[in-house]
Amino acid sequence: MTRRTDRTPLHLNAFLMSVGHHEAAWRLPESPASGGTDLAHYAELARIAERGKLDSLFLADSPVLMGDPGRRPGSKLEPTVLLTALAAVTSRIGLIATASTSYNEPYNLARRFASVDHVSGGRAGWNIVTTAGADAARNFGLDDTPLHRDRYLRAAEFVEVATKLWDSWADDAVLADKELGVHARAERVRPIDHRGTYFRVDGPLNVQRSPQGYPLLVQAGSSEDGKDFAARYAEAVFTAQQTLEEAIAFSKDVKERAAGLGRDPGGIKILPGIVPVIGDTGAQARELDAELDRLIRPEYAKRQLARTLRIDPDALDLDAELPGEIPGEDEIEGAKSRYTLIVDLARRERLTVRQLIGRLGGGRGHRTFAGTAEQVADTIEHWYDAGAADGFNIMPAVLPSGLELFVDRVVPILQERGLFRTEYTGTTLREHYGLPRPANRIFDVVDSRAGHLGIALSGAR
Amino acid sequence: MTRRTDRTPLHLNAFLMSVGHHEAAWRLPESPASGGTDLAHYAELARIAERGKLDSLFLADSPVLMGDPGRRPGSKLEPTVLLTALAAVTSRIGLIATASTSYNEPYNLARRFASVDHVSGGRAGWNIVTTAGADAARNFGLDDTPLHRDRYLRAAEFVEVATKLWDSWADDAVLADKELGVHARAERVRPIDHRGTYFRVDGPLNVQRSPQGYPLLVQAGSSEDGKDFAARYAEAVFTAQQTLEEAIAFSKDVKERAAGLGRDPGGIKILPGIVPVIGDTGAQARELDAELDRLIRPEYAKRQLARTLRIDPDALDLDAELPGEIPGEDEIEGAKSRYTLIVDLARRERLTVRQLIGRLGGGRGHRTFAGTAEQVADTIEHWYDAGAADGFNIMPAVLPSGLELFVDRVVPILQERGLFRTEYTGTTLREHYGLPRPANRIFDVVDSRAGHLGIALSGAR
């Protein structure tokens, strides 16, 4: 195998999802009944991830109750609140929360993330999502989700406004000169006077610049618009890739787009999702995986699949392949990349609906890998060396046990192979990912178009 | 003095404001330089307040940088984030945060407060504000603040939506039946289908009902619209009252309005603000108060006063009274009650602008009381017995020292007199205030118009 020449340590993120990524994980005897709303459960997960020296933990989100409440734990704590609570029980691990650019105001959200960055001592990250789905739209006065393209245009302007607000205080603004009686220097705190298509925001923010300057900017959509957005703004990308070839192509694509915008491709870390199901033997791991699939109630899953594919549930036969006629990605307005991934997976592997449901129930389109700790470490190393990944988004099927097995069995192997840190060397999330603290585009960057990210500063000052 | 017959223990709230309520507190040698953004500082304040067995702590807020950043610490952590961080370092004290109904979406905010209530084990309170001021409006795409009346109409509908969302899960919705494979019972989780003037929200919320059902609902405006709003929705009211007579009249007014709406007047706790400046002797206390006033830079304060009064700063002479011609309350669209309070105070006591600035600098219109611990306890008892207050909003001029003095010297006197608890008897904020957990208006109340608050359930189900 060709070793990649830039063999920097890889990055590991723990994607925390209630009692596990497998939709039936909650039915196991070990799972706490109310995992989604139980702080003690999440605190335990955060401590395990930090014990493993993982770069970060991550919380997904959508402002809507997803699917049938009978199917799996649907009650979930709001991520910036939960993140703050987890900051209090950890000291080094990075903390990434999802928040929607479609259903928030930039002033409020910029302020919340700056605040989380302050209280956590520079450990905040923001997974920027545009939130697909009519159900979410109907919690915010709309009949249906805004058009895909509009959501991404709004997201880009949202990030522009947020970064300007984070830059509205110079790092040296607070003087606190008690003798003189001047707290902050007025000339080092400036309005942003943003006037755009979606937003008009005067600023300045009412929170001084935070330890990281900006939270780490993360993105997860893999549609064309999503990849362009990632290339421009993202510093880490969570992605669902089923095969090595697809993952290599995806990474190459996003990094080339970034280079095309004048960014350093090394400034974007690509982290495919992996659902590791770990056993003492491969057979034991596969048996756990199969046991979980048996616990799925197919009527829930079939209804959900039909919803995603925009077809009638009755058109799905559990023991047959997907029907021939389903809408193309072009006709879909939300979650395009997830839609395509599901259809491609089903067609490529000629899965029956029942088999497809099992695969999706495990990782919702992410790659499930059942094997020994050694085998999990091998596939991680293999993908990493092949340039398919700068790290991995670890999505244990069952929590906390799956995270515990990963941290206690897989991480030591990766450390032994020199692939992963044995101690934290930095204190901020950006330091863990080897990414710079962004310069202040309002006060410190002489050429305002040469900022840290592909964000041209327009309209400010 | 006539003792009030319902001598239930009084309630004490610690209003935490950076390094103190006096605008010049930050200039004292003891004050930390970056108090507004420093979690360790706030954590110390929370621990002191909890040591004193106070009912709650409270964070004010407006989504805007207030005034000149030179004048006092203007950088402040977002309150729901800070509250969550403080929940982690305390175990019993209630946690009240301000949030605006004008610049939030009900789905997002209902979810955040439900989440804070979950992570704190039932200690969350929401101070409902409508946010006056063109500066704040200009951070949210508006040219000026919405009309006073519109803000209150929106606020009422906002609270209606939020309470419906909190009721969208029955308390017994989560079954977590592993055998059957049913997590929550679909028939015990319902959309709210709200269709109103300001909001359309389908729901249900994606957080199950929280320990308190609703966070404690707090309100602070004292205009006519504000008092009507308090009478209908508030369970605790923070108010600025300079004299005993005004405070008695205010309390009577609000409670009568509530009774007129069919509510139990005992279900609304009135807490006037008091800025206690405590010394070993009265003279020492007055000297500390005067020292703080000398540290005010009058040019900052004069500019701020002119802004509030909507007049030219040059019209203000530091050593003369307020000019005769200033706008009436009717012409003011924001913070009406604060405006009137300032003008009334200046006219009643015939204060010069310099004196007025001193009084406002200390407590921004709240009542400053300089004296010994015994004298502070006396005035608290006096107001309480006279029916002017169900408790007090404690606003130390300097933090942490002023809170420490209050907790260590005044609280023991109040405890000795049987006026204040010596131990927490409940675990939730509602229990501290002696207020019931609200019934679920969607699932548990047979006559939906006879709910806990003056909230008629309309449009739902």
Explain how this protein is built.
2 copies of one chain form a homodimer. Chain A has helices at 39-51, 79-88, 106-119, 134-137, 148-166, 224-233, 244-260, 282-294, 298-309, 336-348, 353-363, 373-385, 401-416, 429-432; strands at 11-15, 56-59, 94-100, 124-129, 174-177, 182-184, 194-195, 200-201, 216-219, 236-239, 269-278, 367-371, 391-394. Chain A has 461 residues and is an alpha/beta fold. Chain A has a domain at 11-166 and 194-275 and 369-432: TIM Barrel (Alpha-Beta Barrel), CATH 3.20.20. The first copy, chain A, is globular and about 75 Å long. In chain A, 58% of the residues are buried. At the A-B interface, helix 2, helix 3, strand 6 and strand 8 of A face helix 2, helix 3, strand 6 and strand 8 of B.
Secondary structure blueprint with pairings:
The structure is a homodimer of 461-residue chains.
Chain A: E1 11-15, H1 39-51, E2 56-59, H2 79-88, E3 94-100, H3 106-119, E4 124-129, H4 134-137, H5 148-166, E5 174-177, E6 182-184, E7 194-195, E8 200-201, E9 216-219, H6 224-233, E10 236-239, H7 244-260, E11 269-278, H8 282-294, H9 298-309, H10 336-348, H11 353-363, E12 367-371, H12 373-385, E13 391-394, H13 401-416, H14 429-432
Parallel strand pairs in A: 1-2, 1-13, 2-3, 3-4, 4-9, 9-10, 10-11, 11-12, 11-13
Antiparallel strand pairs in A: 5-6, 7-8
Helix pairs in contact in A: 2-3, 3-5, 5-6, 6-7, 8-11, 9-11, 12-13
Spell out the helices and strands of chain A N to C. EHEHEHEHHEEEEEHEHEHHHHEHEHH
Oligomer: homodimer
Pair with the most extensive interface? A-B, 75 and 75 residues
Q: For the largest sheet of chain A, list the strands in their spatial order.
A: 1-2-3-4-9-10-11-13
User: Roughly how many Å apart are the termini of chain A?
Assistant: 52 Å
Helical coverage of chain A, percent range:
25-40%
Q: Helical element count of chain A? A: 14
Structural class by SSE content of chain A: alpha/beta
